């Protein structure tokens, strides 16, 4: 997969890896950012919600780099700040203090128009609830981000991705005619289609049975190995995290563990020592939440209209998409609900 060149920006940034200031405008000529192995990073990132007595510190001076061509899993108990970190990294939420960079561009200094542009050009999203447009076919959903950003369609790349995710026979189906696993594979293909610098995946297997989870996670891992894709994935599931090259554990808004190429057993051990996670414990003892659908297609259409639990920040991505979709699609293929078009 052809990797992005570093982008031109007028901002100056400091990599926590090197501690050296660098002018991002020079990166375009030296291509320094494609060599330093870092696709995105946060520097002294804090996020608080509320004020005075009701203040909640979701992220507490976090410094973290995400490797290019790596799959990084973010784990941690409920409320530890996983989603907030991912949303700040993806430009879906605004830091209270500190900085966020993607491809050397300072996300934390961007206005709304620049953020929208960044999300369209550099970032792919995969959500727990799939967020496919129900009125579009699988093929149309996969191609939608390119239509929105008016990018040319690389048919060879499309054919390759569709083959890898095993959707060749399902391209004409709408989401309601696909299983949950198939819908998430459509979402994976959609995220990959625009060749984003980094894919942010928020509990991508949270609504899937274990077989479908394995398929989706294998695809994500293969996309890292075969195409150098960079992926940051939030998950509660140690099994899902074991597909990652690196596993970070958050607790109370701080990174408490940083594991490289950990085994499933090592992740379990660390997770137990950290006090575990009630959501994971609830699902343990037979994969109860997910096994009901295993071996059949009972999850057909499960995701439709299932985005009500999304934070406003995530819905913003959908609004970006919908504004453009109105001009990029014919009237018969327009989404009916703006939040359903989150890409
Ligand atoms: N919009 C908000 N307003 C107020 N508090 C918030 C908001 N979003 C998150 N928080 C708080 O910030 C903290 C971190 O939340 P976050 O959603 O990032 O945690 P998480 O680790 O992703 O949790 P979960 O695993 O349950 O999704 C929590 O205490 C949460 O209640």
From TrEMBL:
<feature type="region of interest" description="Disordered">
    <location>
        <begin position="278"/>
        <end position="343"/>
    </location>
</feature>
<keyword id="KW-0067">ATP-binding</keyword>
<keyword id="KW-0547">Nucleotide-binding</keyword>
<dbReference type="InterPro" id="IPR003593">
    <property type="entry name" value="AAA+_ATPase"/>
</dbReference>
<dbReference type="GO" id="GO:0022857">
    <property type="term" value="F:transmembrane transporter activity"/>
</dbReference>
<dbReference type="GO" id="GO:0005524">
    <property type="term" value="F:ATP binding"/>
</dbReference>
<dbReference type="InterPro" id="IPR017911">
    <property type="entry name" value="MacB-like_ATP-bd"/>
</dbReference>
<dbReference type="Pfam" id="PF00005">
    <property type="entry name" value="ABC_tran"/>
</dbReference>
<keyword id="KW-0378">Hydrolase</keyword>
<protein>
    <submittedName>
        <fullName>ATP-binding protein of ABC transporter system</fullName>
        <ecNumber>3.6.3.25</ecNumber>
    </submittedName>
</protein>
<feature type="domain" description="ABC transporter">
    <location>
        <begin position="40"/>
        <end position="277"/>
    </location>
</feature>
<dbReference type="InterPro" id="IPR003439">
    <property type="entry name" value="ABC_transporter-like_ATP-bd"/>
</dbReference>
<dbReference type="GO" id="GO:0016887">
    <property type="term" value="F:ATP hydrolysis activity"/>
</dbReference>
<dbReference type="GO" id="GO:0098796">
    <property type="term" value="C:membrane protein complex"/>
</dbReference>
<feature type="compositionally biased region" description="Low complexity">
    <location>
        <begin position="319"/>
        <end position="343"/>
    </location>
</feature>
<keyword id="KW-0813">Transport</keyword>
<dbReference type="GO" id="GO:0005886">
    <property type="term" value="C:plasma membrane"/>
</dbReference>
<dbReference type="InterPro" id="IPR015854">
    <property type="entry name" value="ABC_transpr_LolD-like"/>
</dbReference>
<feature type="region of interest" description="Disordered">
    <location>
        <begin position="1"/>
        <end position="28"/>
    </location>
</feature>
<dbReference type="InterPro" id="IPR027417">
    <property type="entry name" value="P-loop_NTPase"/>
</dbReference>
<feature type="compositionally biased region" description="Polar residues">
    <location>
        <begin position="7"/>
        <end position="18"/>
    </location>
</feature>
